């Protein structure tokens, strides 16, 4: 994993803090305090690109909807297909939650 070099008590504590957030509104407030608008846009865009790739959208559709460059799309695609499979975990959990709320 690329993040291995950052692993440690401080990063564990950071992730544990994020995991305490309970609502979307709490996430808005926390990330507003933590990040710049551009940092949030970058994170959101990568997530959006991953979701669209996961759902088999084309590069041109992703470029148009997510306003992402082909370089960003390629980078996210590499993580989606050769990463830690966490996009798959997250997207499946989101779908399961959506299905259980129906």
TrEMBL record:
<dbReference type="InterPro" id="IPR013368">
    <property type="entry name" value="YecD_YerC"/>
</dbReference>
<dbReference type="InterPro" id="IPR038116">
    <property type="entry name" value="TrpR-like_sf"/>
</dbReference>
<dbReference type="Pfam" id="PF01371">
    <property type="entry name" value="Trp_repressor"/>
</dbReference>
<dbReference type="InterPro" id="IPR010921">
    <property type="entry name" value="Trp_repressor/repl_initiator"/>
</dbReference>
<dbReference type="InterPro" id="IPR000831">
    <property type="entry name" value="Trp_repress"/>
</dbReference>
<protein>
    <submittedName>
        <fullName>YerC/YecD family TrpR-related protein</fullName>
    </submittedName>
</protein>
